[in-house]
């Protein structure tokens, strides 16, 4: 856009324009910029529009900028095994390890294995170490390991010597273990094909399986892409609570006690308990309770109380009051609406739908956020970066956002480099007299 305004870019001879991810551009807030650029291209161009979804605004753009469009819609068959239950869990990045251990507490089944996917070799090794420190028999498997080391992990998994493997996509290729009951996507895959490959490691040999996808606020787009690619909706799943973990531990321990009562010879132990009750004067139930506490060791039936996890995003009503914030960077710094939305959404965990309106001027920008989220955004963005550069953000004042200042900013003459041709808008928008109008294509992906 800056080149067009400076006259250093001429689009008068553009023949074809491709608009990809139209719905994503709309969501990120810079569809107006795209429309402005389209307005600088010849009217007889051929235009193709690709969009995973077709909301009303995207259809309006198609109707306005495509000539006699042809709709092409792609339908995909189900790519995943129907015996795999597919779920997703919304978590913040810093909650993921705790959420994982809570899920392992409630989802793990004795005699079954769990495969956890992380994106990087470093991430795999770090997560495996954290699980081991919490008492889980977990091993890492990644590309830096030798073939012999990877085969050793697989052998121990088959022999049920370990119960959890944390792996990268590359390391898990070709992994065929029948008793993998769960696949947990600790890090969301980069593409839907990888997701299909990952969850295919469970539900082998006709068994049922369960796949769980961790989704952070900035990854909801990839979740939708995965659902569209596989043709299946993922079911929402909550992180188990403190009470859920306690109930699960109690149920498993009761089952173990009953099995011991039914299968073991307990005469020696029964005599010991009766002797202890007679000597101490304690009730048999009290002695049994003490024995249970000793048996549980450092993993009591009631886990230590933990603070409730922070909510994901903000439970804001549809109609909410907006406050404007000032950012000391603008067009001259290459700032775009997508950069502002991405920075605030990632740092403050505020969903993109709550961010806006956005106005970008030469040397500063204004962005609206819900009043309820103002303090959190200012705190999260303090000392942060936008588009890789340090910026300051504060509450906008009337001088920043008043109509007089804004009009003066917009009316200010722009610098034009010497000896560069000026952009001729009339020449760019004029229709040729003879060439026929070409058909354009509007393409919908599912």
For the secondary structure, the number of strands is 17
Strand order of the largest sheet: 6-7-5-8-9-4-10
- Overall geometry: elongated
> How large is the share of residues in beta strands?
15-25%
What's the number of structural domains? 4
What characterizes the major β-sheet? 7 strands, parallel
Write down the CATH class of the largest domain: Alpha Beta
Contiguous runs where pLDDT drops below 50 for at least 5 residues: 402-430
Compose a concise summary of this entry.
With 446 residues, this protein is an alpha/beta fold.
SSE order and pairing:
Elements (H helix, E strand, L loop, with lengths): L1 H5 L9 E4 L2 H7 L2 H8 L7 E6 L4 H10 L4 E4 L10 E7 L5 H12 L5 E5 L3 H13 L4 E4 L5 H12 L5 E4 L12 E6 L6 H8 L9 E7 L4 H11 L4 E2 L5 H22 L3 H14 L3 H13 L25 E6 L9 H12 L9 E3 L4 E6 L3 H8 L3 E2 L2 E2 L2 E3 L2 H4 L1 H9 L13 H5 L11 E4 L2
Parallel strand pairs: 1-2, 2-17, 3-17, 4-9, 4-10, 5-7, 5-8, 6-7, 8-9
Antiparallel strand pairs: 11-13, 11-16, 12-13, 14-15
Helix pairs in contact: 8-9, 13-14
């Amino acid at each position: 856009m800056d080149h067009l305004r400076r006259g250093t870019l001429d689009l008068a001879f553009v023949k074809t324009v491709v608009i990809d991810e139209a719905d994503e551009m709309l969501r990120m807030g810079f569809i107006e910029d795209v429309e402005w650029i389209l307005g600088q291209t010849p009217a007889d161009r051929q235009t193709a529009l690709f969009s995973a979804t077709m909301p009303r605004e995207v259809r309006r753009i198609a109707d306005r900028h495509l000539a006699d469009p042809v709709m092409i819609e792609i339908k995909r068959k189900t790519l995943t095994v129907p015996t795999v239950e597919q779920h997703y869990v919304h978590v913040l990045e810093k909650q993921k390890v705790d959420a994982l251990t809570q899920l392992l507490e409630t989802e793990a089944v004795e005699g079954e294995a769990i495969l956890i996917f992380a994106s990087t070799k470093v991430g795999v090794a770090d997560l495996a170490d954290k699980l081991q420190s919490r008492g889980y028999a977990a091993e890492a498997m990644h590309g830096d390991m030798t073939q012999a080391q990877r085969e050793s992990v697989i052998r121990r998994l088959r022999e049920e010597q370990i119960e959890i493997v944390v792996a990268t996509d590359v390391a898990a290729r070709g992994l065929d273990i029948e008793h993998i009951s769960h696949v947990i996507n600790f890090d969301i895959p980069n593409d839907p094909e990888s997701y299909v490959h990952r969850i295919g490691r469970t539900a082998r040999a006709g068994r049922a399986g369960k796949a769980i996808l961790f989704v952070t606020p900035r990854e909801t787009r990839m979740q939708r892409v995965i659902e569209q690619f596989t043709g299946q909706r993922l079911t929402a799943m909550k992180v188990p609570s403190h009470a859920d973990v306690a109930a699960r531990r109690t149920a498993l321990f009761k089952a173990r006690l009953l099995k011991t009562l039914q299968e073991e010879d307990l005469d020696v132990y029964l005599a010991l308990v009766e002797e202890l009750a007679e000597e101490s004067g304690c009730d048999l139930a009290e002695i049994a309770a003490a024995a249970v506490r000793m048996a549980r060791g450092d993993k009591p039936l009631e886990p230590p109380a933990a603070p409730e996890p922070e909510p994901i995003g903000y439970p804001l009503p549809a109609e909410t009051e907006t406050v404007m914030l000032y950012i000391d960077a603008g067009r001259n710094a290459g700032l775009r609406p997508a950069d502002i939305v991405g920075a605030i959404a990632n740092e403050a965990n505020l969903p993109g739908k709550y961010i806006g309106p956005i106005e970008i001027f030469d040397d500063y920008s204004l962005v609206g956020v819900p009043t309820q989220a103002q303090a959190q955004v200012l705190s999260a963005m303090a000392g942060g970066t936008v588009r890789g550069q340090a910026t300051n953000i504060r509450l906008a004042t009337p001088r920043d956002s008043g109509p007089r200042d804004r009009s003066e900013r917009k009316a200010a003459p722009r610098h034009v480099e010497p000896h560069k041709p000026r952009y001729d808008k009339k020449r760019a928008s004029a229709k040729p007299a003879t060439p026929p109008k070409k058909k354009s294509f509007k393409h919908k992906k599912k």
